[in-house]
Amino acid sequence: MTQTDIHNCDVLVIGSGAAGLTLALSLANAARVTVLSKGTLTSGSTWHAQGGIAAVLDTEDSIESHVADTLAAGGGLCHPDVVEFTVKNSKAAIDWLVDLGVDFTRSEGSEEFHLTREGGHSHRRIIHSADATGKAVHTTLLEKAQSNPNITLLEHMIALDLIRQPDPQSRKLRCVGAYVFNRNLDKVECFTAKAVILATGGASKVYLYSSNPDSASGDGIAMAWRAGCRVANMEFNQFHPTCLYHPSAKSFLITEALRGEGAILKLPGGERFMPKFHELAELAPRDVVARAIDHEMKRLGSQFVHLDISHKPKEFIIQHFPTVYENCLKYGIDICTQPIPVVPAAHYTCGGVVVNTNGETDLKNLYAIGETSFTGLHGANRMASNSLLECIVFAQSAAQTILTTLPDTAPPAAPKSWDESRVTDSDEDVVISHNWDELRRFMWDYVGIVRTHKRLERAKHRIELLQQEIHEYYSNYKVSSDLIELRNLAMVAELIIRSAMQRKESRGLHYSLDYPDTSNLAIDTILVPGNFADQNIVVSH
Length: 541
Hints:
There is one protein chain. The strands form five sheets. A five-stranded parallel beta sheet has the order 7-3-2-11-18. Strands 19-17-12-20-21 form a five-stranded mixed beta sheet, covered by helices on one side. The protein has a four-stranded mixed beta sheet with strand order 1-10-9-8, covered by helices on one side. The chain is built from 15 helices and 21 strands. The model is unreliable at about 535-540 (pLDDT under 50). The chain folds into three domains: about 5-50 and about 135-235 and about 350-410, FAD/NAD(P)-binding domain (3-Layer(bba) Sandwich); about 240-345, Succinate dehydrogenase/fumarate reductase flavoprotein, catalytic domain (Flavocytochrome C3, Chain A, domain 1), CATH 3.90.700; about 430-525, Methane Monooxygenase Hydroxylase, Chain G, domain 1. Helix 7 (about 220-225) crosses helix 15 (about 480-500). The chain has helices spanning about 20-25, 45-50, 65-75, 80-90, 90-100, 135-145, 220-225, 255-260, 285-300, 315-320, 320-330, 385-405, 430-445, 455-475, 480-500, and strands at about 5-10, 10-15, 35, 55, 115, 125, 150-155, 155-165, 175-180, 185-190, 195-200, 230, 235-245, 265, 305-310, 340-350, 350-355, 365-370, 375, 525, 535-540. The chain is of the alpha/beta class.
């Protein structure tokens, strides 16, 4: 067995988006922090986020109103105490970002921040940087992290599995690091730490059509599950209603802020259709809008609908939506004069690894923050622009807990080396490519916006066969980035399917033709590692 290279630090952060970088910066004065990025440091979802951050910043708005809007959008499954905790910390989170230097858009001729409105919000409370808020936030966080001597940033490092050891005090298992595939050197290395944070984003790449970058393969959720942590509400996958439909465009999201500023959804023939589905029309919650578009597309046999903002002044459109304008223009679409062809696409994973308000998981010294986690904030449907807020608030909360526990945490023992003594190089990588494509297609067809029990049964059967193939492949061949992601996507797909099969109702993002009504009892779907037969466990709150 070849000795595995071991790297030691105080805190290991797996993921380099808003959540991971916020936590790293919050700890850097007191700890040596290593941040791992599976691709480049700017390849994650944060960099691509267009909309903004929801926060109570206007005198006419209130914490109570933001809380009420979030609870309404969440379909009865949001945890009220968590929603209140998040919203109460929203202004402090924005103030911290402003102090760091994030360049948020100001109102014309004023020093006041421009606030926009998005679906589900009763007030203008979305602070933004034009239509590239994620890029602005991430650029600032990254610049601060790169200049901090206590933060080490490593690119092209994809985590394989978490390392567990008995805790010297309690003898219960604790997390002490991770095995990581170094894509630069094509080998597995070991990173150990007193605290490990999963900030790997969501799992939308489990679907054929997604607004997310390719890195959104559910790595953190799969690793935590394999390490013995509970996951919750994996059946709630948010489909963004409006992604650009064009044969040459890949995963380009048309921000919800367009509808916030008056864009109208129309059928290919020009007829507006949202008012017949919801009183808020285009500003209805995302699940309502996505289902309405899906319904009209299937009814008409159309591959897309139109989103039209061309009735607004050209100067207004270009000033507020430069990214959308420029990107659409690349594909021959002038949004100032033409409607945009759009289609729903998998966008956000509302479920994830079960944590408390400190980001703590079921495994000691393991934390999960951002889209990887299940905090109880989003319920059955995430309200627009609450996600970046969650990243900042929970990263800072987790950092405070880590700061108090780190001094008393014993350093890890030397971990076992990664064993590759009995594996060979694969000459059939086409198998991985085929399985990846098959997985994403049947998840789209059977576990998409509208579901049935029969479709879920078919998906369950296929994922079981696929898991067997992947396990055999993983056991016999050297790991690769594609194999690692396929293994994680298959695990997450199974969690989504089994969670969806347990929910015998329609609620929020989970809509079943077999169970169209909403139950009077709002309960979370909690999956517990072990025998799936024992996992019909639900928690009321």
